[in-house]
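For the sake of transparency, this paper describes our internal protein records without simplification. Such a record has a labelled line for the sequence and another for the backbone structure tokens. Nothing more is needed to write down the fold, since each code stands for a local backbone conformation. For reference, a complete record is included directly beneath this paragraph.
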Amino acid sequence: MDYYNLRKESMKLEPEFEVVQRPPLINKAYHGNFNVSFGEHYMIEKWGRYQYFDNDWNIKGIAAVVRAIDLFNSIPKNPQKYLGVFDLFAFMKNLKERSDPREIAQNQVSFQIKALNNLGITSDRIHPSYCAGGSVRELTKGKYRFDFYVPEDSFSKEAFLESGIPEKNLIPNKTRDTLLSLNLSTGHIAWGYRNEVEVKTKNKLIDVSTIENFMWDPVYDKDRIIGLEPISYTLCLKGVSGLERIYMAMNNLEDIRDIEHLKEFYDALGSKESYGEYIRALHFIMTDVSSFNIPLNKKKKCKEYVNKMIRNIPKDVSLDKIRSLLYVHSDSQPWYPELREGIEPTIEEIATYRTTKYFKNL
């Protein structure tokens, strides 16, 4: 199965779920950052909040994601594994009445493992993490200091075992990797258990998907979280997967840039230099800036990230060369037809910044 068909087949899962369009990379859910998830934009646009919905809903879709920490930290260190922009495939479910969290975990885990198995990824290769329990202070390394003890996530632990995952593959964890613990400036959001699912490829583990089971609502004193209380509704991320990572695991690839459409781009670049990811990310960002009429200059932090990416493209890479790469980038991803319209806005943004005194003096 090639990458195009992986995307196509993935969207056939859970046919009763509503398909939602990908959120723009700069949206209301993330102040000072690019889109890094799936459902937040949908919830903010539809209800203006992340909690207490008065109806049942189920959504699915593929979001384009740009993570600044990957751009400027992970990619330079490990370009074989990280991308400047990637496809995040997700299912999100809400029920206005609370369900049994054990039943939720069973459903989430069995769905995830079955999906991986159906793609040829056997259970003996799957290594999921789970929260081993501890105080909030301990699990968040002091980020939150209120008194609350988080029990071990026995729900997902038992579900993984029942789904055929060898016990030796389970990874107990005592960090925020397995405790969803956020305090968003754009609205209150529930806390809960989180599982990172890794798959062994040859001699290493790569994380391919995440499961989230929301368990508690934060208690606030103004903008500060001072405690947690049991959630009164069902909200869960049934599964969220980096599709490129899934494809790596399916095919035991050592380098994510060897996926068909990425290889085509890097062949055109003539090397696997990491600045290729800045060009790719800029193309998506400027496509959305243009398509959604986003005032980039008023988004200070995002604008700074854009400028930093441009600075990391070598000066001797001409605008004509970049333009030709953007055409390859667009043509190799027919599932994103909007990229074609984003070529000239991307070139214009790079060209404009390159004329600044700051850039010329680098």
Q: What stands out?
A: The two ends are 45 Å apart (CA to CA).
